[in-house]
Amino acid sequence: RGLVRTGYRADLVVFDEHRVRPAMPTVQTDLPGGARRLVQKAEGIAATVVNGQVTLENGEPTGRTPGVLLHGPGARSA
Predict the structure, then answer these.
(1) What is the pTM (predicted TM-score) of this model?
(2) pLDDT digit string, tens, across residues 8-37
C-alpha cells in the first residue's frame, strides 16, 4: 500500500526470494490462562514496513506500532 517515495507512507515486506519459506510451526502458551496457540513464522524475511516504519527486522519486533486496529462492520470502509 502507498508509494515508495520520500515522505510517503508504504507497507512493504523485504525478503530474499531464494530463502523465503515457512518455518516449522511451534506451540506458544502466551494467551490468557496459558491457552495454547499455533505460531508459524517465516524464514528469509528481512523486514516488514508499515506506514513507512520498520515494525519487524530480522524476525524481531522493533517496538514500532504505526498501524491501526479496525473493529466491526465499518472496518473495511475506514
Answers:
(1) 0.68
(2) 888 999 999 999 999 999 999 999 999 999
Q: SS3 of 7, please?
A: coil
A 10 A CB-CB count for 56 gives 18
Residue 64's region, left for phi above 0, alpha for psi from -120 to 50, else beta, is beta
The residue written with cell numbers 513464522 in the block is 41
Please tell me the distance from the alpha carbon of residue 7 to that of residue 33, in angstroms, as a whole number: 43
Could you give the CA distance from residue 37 to residue 50 in angstroms, rounded to a whole number?
A: 25
Contacts of 26 (CB under 8 A, 6+ apart): 38, 39, 40
Q: What is the dihedral of CA 10, 48, 37, 35, to 10 degrees?
A: -80
